[in-house]
Design brief:
Chain B: InterPro entries: WD40/YVTN_repeat-like_dom_sf, WD40_repeat_dom_sf, WD40_rpt. The complex is a heterodimer of chains A (632) and B (328). With 632 residues, chain A is an all-alpha fold. Helix content of chain A is 63%, strand content 1%. Classes of the chains: A mainly alpha (632), B mainly beta (328).
């Protein structure tokens, strides 16, 4: 296609029509693939070509404008190129404005970061368009800070909006930020609140990163909002968006004085300035001194082999431990610390003695607060609690489950109860390996066992393994070493762990309302029940547990919190895996059919990606079950 | 084969309170009884007779508030004591008297022991912590006039002075003060001019105690961490770190160098007294007798070297007295 430059008034509207028609028919890739690079080159320095290009796009009829604009934004290699190609189209044409400022940002969320950069960069490059940029930012912030959006929109959309916000912020200049400072601040406060309220860690992190970035932009000097969270690729990517390539953040170089401050032995450094009141560097002892007659040789050292680190002795008996832990004497904190460290092993070594005082010990541990800055205090306490629970399961589980629903406990304490129950259940249901409990995966992820942090991944792995083990059983042969078999200790106590937890969930207390505000604890409770169900495989109570669990899930299936829904779906998985197929068929057929239709619904319509995946998994499990029963 | 560490020669009991400070006075001529002064947490200063191993006198001058520093001023007849009642008392103990002749009111509330230096016959300089947080005040005794106040520069953030040592190179020269502070640094001050000559950061934690050997221009400081720091003073009056020594357990309450500069003793929070050779800081012995933190150690000033003793006072209310390396 060749144009005659200079002086001639060509009418390009026919070309615009062609372009529009082609784009609307979905052939954007082909035509723009050729057109855009050509136009990029031509418009680089030639204003006439720029104007021709602008004319071209402006003349596209409104009904095809969207497709054309979308195509250009996606295809342009950079914001400046887009600016050259489209000119002030967004200001002049209403449809284009709608597409760029609202449709692509708020209604769609599938575009890549590069496209976002193009779009927002384009808006920032011209003074006429900058007002649009500010308006876009305001609308994005409104969406980000609305609590219903946070609760109901998919995580991917929220990520998209967060990215857009950060890119906008990176383009804003000082006076613009000043003018909308108040709104930025209000949106940030509201948005942060909604995000932190969410039960999903990914959303919380998104909220934290965006809030930190907004705060950074608002106060460039002075204290900035800083959250503590684990960095991962997503957060790093988000943070990198805040800085545009002509970066103006210079890393301040540390003054030289700081280096030489510490006096470290055996490093020969050149002594620095001899100014007064300056910290001096290390000097190696002069060689000459050694040549002197060493009268120290006359002094013969005594035997110092007994000189070891001072260790505070921990008590040797459980009752002594109880005394130390409940003692009001704040003096002997060393002994208290030593007791806390030694408690777990003492409990395990003296099961008979522990059984005498098990409930008392459980009570003390539940209320134990950190007195000194002991490392790993939370873990030590939890391990001691698990040890007590496994040594004397029935009374202690009765105590703990009753306390879960009692007044005046903090949320943290209630969640601790759930964690301890899960860990103890896992320990009890694990086959003992040579007399010692097989602690394979239990120790390290002590608190992470409840898949609260990384919901679907761990579960899917476990469930997949289970499915695999069920289907390939006849393949295994003799290569597997048989584990020593022994009675399942969890069998006799599974009911004590499970049923009290499920009993009172719908009865609100003054300080604790599972169905109301405390949906985080409800989520954790549901996940706990799923794990307990899973661990109850091969126990006598498993069918009864299954029925109760199914009723429980049915009552809560429309809960608004996606973390709770994920838990409910995990419950169904555990149920399908643990309860023997014959019992499911015999006792729970109608309920299962209803569940199946509910799962289908979830799989199609639930906004949360993890929920949909879990629902699909459950449907597959049900299919397997049916096939197995038909095969019989 | 190294010998096991020796046992204490004797142990003094009877203070009924933790012992915070000790001072020997055994240098007198023959008919004089060698004495050991001890200050305790119950406010009493006990005068121990080292021949009978019993308390000769108990001095009560600090209103039952802990006494944390005791020093003699030219002989055993004049005693200076510092207590938590914010008073420094001067006692007259000649001919059996037990009266407080004078006292200095300290505006500082803390634990920093004062340091005495005899500058002329009947005249002493005393360094003590002053009212303002980082300052040290030098007084002349017995006139109690203030010689100067040593203020660190603004923004130095040294914290409280923790331990002081006044010394002079020889009898007529300028008195100098070494002060260890809460931030772990040791500062050398020129007293007459009132300004700091050098500062060295020796520790990450507060300096608990220090001692200095003016002949070798070397000093040692201990802190609440596991490291002992040895530093030296060069010709330009600058402090430099010479060496550090790592201990088995953290925490040193007191350090003292024996008058003959051959060995030094440290009092540890781990209930142990450690002896080192001063020349190269060679560990010589670990004396493990006490059952609680050792608060103070002190060497005696016997004129006969063979009679020299080391005393250590501890929170377990006992004073252990040792004869160690007395033969050299």
């Amino acid at each position: 296609v060749c144009f005659i430059p200079g002086g001639l008034d060509c009418s390009i509207s026919s070309l615009s029509h062609v372009l529009g028609k082609v784009c609307i028919h979905g052939r954007q890739k082909e035509i723009l693939g050729v057109l855009v690079p050509r136009l990029t080159d031509l418009t680089k320095s030639d204003c006439i070509w720029q104007r021709i290009c602008w004319q071209l796009v402006e003349c596209v009829p409104d009904r095809w404008m969207e497709a054309v604009v979308l195509g250009f934004v996606q295809r342009a290699p950079g914001a400046d190129v887009l600016s050259r190609l489209l000119g002030n189209l967004v200001v002049k044409n209403k449809k284009a404005q709608f597409v760029v400022t609202e449709k692509m940002l708020l209604l769609q969320y599938g575009h890549t970061t590069a496209v976002l950069q193009n779009l927002l960069g384009y808006l920032s490059l011209d003074s006429l368009r900058r007002t649009l940029l500010l308006r876009v930012l305001q609308e994005l912030l409104e969406s980000w800070s609305s609590s219903s959006a946070v609760k109901h929109s998919p995580a991917e959309q929220q990520l998209y909006i967060s990215k857009a916000i950060l890119i906008c912020l990176s383009h804003l200049k000082e006076p613009e930020i000043e003018s909308c400072r108040q709104e930025l601040l209000t949106s940030m406060m509201e948005g942060v609140k909604c995000h932190l309220d969410s039960s999903l860690p990914r959303l919380r992190r998104l909220g934290m990163v965006v809030a930190e970035s907004i705060s950074l932009k608002l106060n460039t000097e002075g204290p900035v909002l800083k959250f503590e969270y684990e960095e991962d690729d997503e957060t790093r990517e988000l943070k990198s968006l805040l800085v545009q390539t002509p970066s103006f953040y210079v890393v301040p170089s540390l003054p030289d004085d700081d280096r030489s401050e510490k006096a470290v032995a055996a490093l020969p450094l050149v002594p620095e300035s001899n100014e007064k009141c300056h910290t001096a560097a290390l000097v190696m002892p002069d060689e000459e001194l050694d040549a002197e007659l060493d009268s120290d040789d006359d002094l013969i050292p005594y035997d110092m082999s007994e000189d070891k680190e001072l260790k505070i002795k921990a008590p040797m008996y459980i009752r002594d431990c109880i005394e130390v832990l409940t003692g009001s004497t704040s003096e002997d904190v060393d002994k208290w610390e030593a007791t806390v460290k030694a408690l777990e092993s003492l409990v395990r070594r003296n099961p008979a003695a522990t059984r005498e005082v098990s409930v008392e010990l459980a009570k003390i541990l539940l209320h134990l607060e950190e007195k000194t800055c002991t490392e790993g205090f939370v873990e030590l306490r939890q391990r001691a609690q698990v040890a007590v629970l496994t040594t004397d399961p029935i009374p202690v589980s009765k105590y703990l489950t009753s306390q879960f629903y009692s007044l005046n406990y903090s949320l943290r304490q209630r969640m601790d109860i759930l964690d301890v129950l899960v860990l103890a259940a896992q320990e009890l249901s694990c086959p003992k390996f040579h007399g010692k409990t097989k602690h394979s995966g239990v120790q390290k992820p002590c608190i992470q066992l409840l898949p609260g942090n990384d919901s679907s991944k761990g579960w899917r792995r476990i469930v997949d393994e289970r499915i695999k083990s069920k289907t390939r059983r006849f393949d295994m042969g003799q290569s597997r070493v048989e584990l020593a078999s022994c009675p399942n200790e969890f069998n006799s106590v599974a009911g004590y762990f499970f049923f009290p937890l499920i009993q009172h969930f719908d009865r609100p207390l003054t300080t604790f309302d599972l169905l109301g505000e405390d949906h985080l604890v409800l989520g954790r409770l549901v996940h706990t029940l799923a794990i307990l169900m899973y661990l109850a495989v091969n126990t006598v109570a498993v069918t009864a547990m299954g029925k109760a669990l199914l009723e429980f899930v049915w009552a809560l299936r429309f809960h608004t919190d996606s973390y709770v829904r994920q838990g409910l779906l995990s419950c169904i998985s555990s149920l399908l895996l643990s309860v023997p197929a014959e019992r499911i068929l015999a006792d729970m057929t109608e309920e299962l059919l209803e569940t199946q239709s509910w799962l289908g619904d979830v799989m199609e319509k639930d906004p949360d990606g993890d929920c949909r995946r879990l629902a699909l998994q459950n449907l597959l499990l049900m299919e397997n079950l049916k096939k197995k029963l038909e095969a019989v | 084969m190294a010998l096991p560490p020796p046992d204490p020669q004797f142990v003094l009991r009877g203070t009924s309170a933790a012992v915070h400070t000790l001072h020997f006075s055994c240098g007198g001529p023959e008919p004089d009884i060698p004495l050991l002064f001890s200050g305790s947490e119950n406010g009493f200063i006990h005068v121990w007779n080292l021949k009978t191993h019993r308390v000769d006198t108990a001095l009560d001058g600090h209103g039952r508030k802990s006494v944390y520093c005791v020093e003699t001023m030219s002989g055993k007849d004049r005693l200076l004591s510092q207590g938590r009642d914010q008073r420094i008392c001067l006692w007259d103990l000649a001919e059996g008297r037990t009266s407080v002749t004078d006292s200095v009111f300290m505006e500082h509330v803390g634990f920093c022991r004062c340091s005495l230096l005899k500058v002329a016959q009947g005249r002493w300089l005393m360094a003590m912590a002053a009212r303002s947080l980082e300052e040290v005040q030098i007084l002349e005794l017995p006139s109690k006039t203030s010689v100067c106040t040593l203020k660190p520069e603004v923004g130095a953030k040294l914290g409280m002075p923790m331990c002081l040592k006044l010394w002079q190179l020889s009898c007529g020269s300028q008195p100098v003060l070494l002060a260890g502070y809460e931030d772990g640094s040791v500062v050398l001050w020129n007293v007459s001019m009132g300004k700091a000559l050098s500062q060295l950061i020796c520790h990450q934690e507060p300096v608990m105690s220090l001692d200095f050997d003016s002949e070798k221009a070397k000093g040692i400081s201990g802190s609440s961490e596991k490291v002992l720091s040895i530093w030296s003073l060069n010709e330009q009056q600058n402090l430099q770190v010479y060496k550090t020594h790592e201990l088995v357990n953290a925490g040193i309450s007191d350090i003292t160098i024996r008058p003959d500069k051959k060995i030094l003793a440290t009092a540890g929070w781990d209930h142990r007294i450690r002896i080192f050779g001063w020349k190269k800081l060679k560990p010589l012995a670990v004396l493990d007798y006490h059952t609680a933190t050792v608060h103070c150690v002190s060497f005696s000033d016997h004129s006969n070297p063979r009679e020299r003793l080391l005393a250590a006072g501890s929170k377990d209310q006992r004073i252990s007295v040792w004869s160690i390396y007395a033969q050299t």
